[in-house]
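Hi there,

I know you've been waiting on this one. I reran it after we fixed the sequence typo, so this is the corrected version. Both the input and the resulting structure follow.
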Amino acid sequence: MTEPNPVTKPADERLRVAVLVDLPRSAQSGGHVKCWERLAHAAVDSDLPINLCVYFSGNAPDEILSPTVRLRHLPPVFSTARLKFLPYVPDHTDLASWHPALARELRAFDVIHTTDGFFAFSQTATKIAQRAGVPMVTSFHTDTPSYTRIFTRQTIEKLTAKMPWLRHLLLDTLDVPERQGRAMEKRLRQHVKTCRYALVTREEDRLLAAEQIGTARVPHLRLGIDKKMFGLHRCDRAGILRDYNIPADRCVFLFVGRVDVGKNIYTLTSALEQIIAAGVPAHLIVAGVGPAREEVQRRLGDHVTSPGFVAPDELARLYASVDALALCSEVEIRSMAGVEAMASGCPVLVSRNSGIAQLFDHTTAMQVVDSGVDCWRDVVRSFIEDKQHQQVMRDAAAEYGRTKLAEWRQVLAEDLFAIWQKSFVEKGA
């Protein structure tokens, strides 16, 4: 008689999974945080045998979504918020190498899932996984090495504004941004090597992870969508023009996300500035907050509406009602905005360098744009002037959203839970 695997759980026992998101959680959080919030809500509605706790960094009270799903907050040990000399940090995180409170709790879980390879939560998880034998998996959500290069350069430029010799030394001679980026890439590789599986979306991340743990252990991770909230049924063009005070003859573009250099907002602003100066009827809605918001408003004048943070329900109305989403960021791993736009029948103009178009099979719902102001100016102007092309992209977006995009509960069950379960079973193999 075959002995039962001592690690395999009885059918009526739930798999205990801890997901670690070392970022603060708020209504204005980006896609990394929002992704896991939505997956947690999907877990509430599912019949999966899971006990899920998603950890965030911060001092907020825990949120109990159901008896088996919880959003937990742990105060950071050493937050980047303490570094007052930094001119701008997109999202604060915990720089400590050990989080005692988290360490005490992680031993109680069957699987640990990290969502970065750099900060306090993931560093603590690596140590606990090794000491307690808890299997660990990871997933790629943010291109931290690339953002490190961008914001290291920005920080040096601002702090050395009156010291050109020091700026030249740090940027040109020592190339500190590139050194910092490579250091983060090295840390990421080291972290992936400690994981049983690494879930990825981009091809370059798949290659990086496969070098560390083998191709068979690098499955694909999709982005989900709430099709009740995002869809063609949310279209309200007349209402958007009225509520945002936009003349009816203008082609309306939407920007969603942090309004900063990391999202390449200055390139889009310069392109639209030239188009508007040429008399082309363009308008931009900026849905987000960030240090560049006032400059964008000043430069585009009455051709931009900048409402700041936009709640998901209103964002759904915008996607379904504007002419196109301008996804100008060149540093993306996945794009929640792109998914939500296509589900809403909204064409997407997307940076070629971001690699986002290839994640969606180069659908005609997306038009790739090469780097630089001139390229964005020419593509945006051509889009405005070609109504037939707009309609082709709109139809393709609606079709892609209807037939290709998965709902969050599918992503949870098919992409994540299956891997968590395999990791747990393999523990005793």
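Quick highlight: The chain has two domains: 15-224+408-427, 232-403.

Best,
R. S.
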